Amino acid sequence: MASNTTTADTASTGSASTEPILRVNDVTKTYGEGHTAVTAVANASLAVKEGEFVSLLGPSGSGKTTLISMIGGLLTSTSGTIELGDVDVSTLSKKDLTAFRAQRVGFVFQASNLVPFLTAKENLVYVATLRKDYDRKQASKRADELLGELGLSERIGNLPEQLSGGERQRVAIGRALMNDPDLVLVDEPTASLDTELGRQVVQLLAREVKDRGKTGIMVTHDLRMVEYTDQVFEILDGKLSAEGTGKEKAKSH
Amino acid sequence: MMLAWAEIRRSSGRFLSIIGALSLITFLVLTLSALSDGLFFGSTGAVKAPSAQAYVFSEDAEGSFIRSQIPAADVEKYRQLDGIDRAGPVGVLLTSGKASSGELDVAVFGVDPESASAPQTVTKGRLPTPAENGVAAIDDSAKGVEIGSTVTVGDVPVEIVGLTSGSSYQLQPTLWTTVDTWTAMQESVRPETRGLPAYVSAIALDLSAGTTVESLRSIAGTVVLTEDQAALAIPGVEQQRSTLNSIIYTTLLVAALVVALFFALIVLEKRDLFAALKALGTSTGRLGRSVIIQAIFASVIGVILGAIASRLLGLVIPSEVPTLYLTNSLIQISVFTIVASVLGAVFSLRRIAKIDPATALGGNL
Ligand SMILES: Nc1ncnc2c1ncn2[C@@H]1O[C@H](COP(=O)(O)OP(=O)(O)O)[C@@H](O)[C@H]1O
Ligand SMILES: [Mg+2]
Prior knowledge:
The complex is a heterodimer. By secondary structure, chain A is an alpha/beta fold. Chain A has a domain at 7-13 and 49-61 and 93-232 and 239-251: Rossmann fold, CATH 3.40.50.300. Chain A is 36% helix and 25% strand. Chain A has a 6-stranded mixed sheet, with helices on both faces. Chain A has a 4-stranded antiparallel sheet with strand order 2-1-4-5, covered by helices on one side. The two termini of chain A are 20 Å apart. Mean pLDDT of chain A is 88; it is low at 1-16. By secondary structure, chain B is of the alpha+beta class. Chain B has helices at residues 2-10, 12-48, 73-80, 179-189, 227-232, 237-269, 271-279, 284-316, 327-354; strands spanning 54-58, 70-71, 84-99, 102-111, 122-125, 135-139, 150-153, 156-164, 174-178, 199-200, 202-207, 222-226. In chain B, strand 7 and strand 8 form a beta hairpin. Chain B is elongated and about 100 Å long. The model of chain B has no long low-confidence stretch (mean pLDDT 91). Chains A and B meet through helix 2, helix 3 and helix 4 of A and helix 1 and helix 7 of B. The complex binds adenosine-5'-diphosphate (ADP) and magnesium ion. Magnesium ion binds next to helix 2 of chain A.
């Protein structure tokens, strides 16, 4: 990966590339109370810089979804802090979290979850309407550009049902990037795709995250996908550990 | 709103079904209401057409013109009372007569053409003058009867000199005559009434400003009812009205349930989508608004189609079926249906609020 260009890129936007933009400090999440309490994430800490794409690996039920849900403002932590830039996510109200997700986080879900009655382009424009500073013309232009970059120029007027699985995931990537978020969270993006398509989608994600100076976290249990990520974290029974770079981790298997 | 409209446009099939259901419901309710109004006015027109705001009946008659008998002298007594502007006699006979066009059911109303009991809705010709016997005006619902026709009741013939509208009684055209002509017809058709001391069926009262029926002191042996009370006391009227009204209200309730069910299903089906939209930063309020917009859209279109269908039916319905399409009823029912639909949709808001955006992630549990 061209990490040098990424660094140069982010530096030119004026932010300090060495300072992590996302800081997860000692975060714990416990579901339920008393006997039935389940600690899904225990004292997890991690830091990710701008332009970095990291993967979160672990078997089913290990706490991956819980962790990125907290980072993305979908779930409140039981303890610990999560900071994205200057915002402490763990202190936001429900209403502020909704706005936070709309403006600062892009999600790519496991099943693309596109709005079935909106065209590819409208699916992108829709998330722009969630912004306070929504500008119709600008949103339309940006959606065209994004879909073009994702190789979907011919598909902008198609409904999701008219797209292939890979195309749908690419539209979902466009949607995640539409509001120029700081953070892109991706949950098992290849679950519904075959290996080759999955690989292409992940490569595309990695490229977009880096080129745009975003911070990306991808949940996966597919080791073959980690080689496209800069850092690998592994979570087992709620306990998070750093596993080095994606290339190293991919080779070790 | 982008989501609401796009869904209506692109999944028009399912919206056509709810619009279809709502237009059928509106059609049914409007037609029932036209029937209810038609029956009501067809039954009570003769009570509404005169200027009277109140009617006097004999105490034991329970407001029935047919059962009521009041000494003729009481008309003058009422005329003298404080709070009464005018008092006019009403003699009623439900019977059938003969016209050149054949047998004809009529309600003979013997009245004082210059008092509170005279109909105000003459559309053609004139009423008899107070002492003019042998002539009558008739409600224009009488088939085949024109000015100049002769209608014979018992052995008493009258020449028709005028037509009135909206003045039938118990769905029979009213024959407006003088009290003397009515008495002659009554004695001819019902010989047992011959030789009775002079009487009338009821007395129509014009009240002076500020006077109410409650404040009126009635003459012994009589009761005073308001025009509306007298109308509802006509046999069958109240039953018809309450039966049809309860069908109408039940149908409106069904409209609310249909819409509630429809949107409950839509929301259930879109649970995952709504969770994802919430995760992307869509507020519950915005999702709720889009459902409400859809409910308003579906019900407005449904109501318009139902109203058109019901009016078209009104055009082809045979005139024997008493229907009356009132703008007031149309507006009322349209508003009720739309409100009922929106209330139905409001029920799904709670479900939308309950959807947890966190469930959008992690389908691998
Ligand atoms: N809403 C919840 N309520 C209770 N327990 C939960 C809930 N969500 C997840 N868990 C539990 O937390 C643990 C971690 O789940 P999750 O974060 O979904 O793991 P992963 O995404 O790695 O499969 C599991 O034991 C799961 O059963
Ligand atoms: Mg998961």
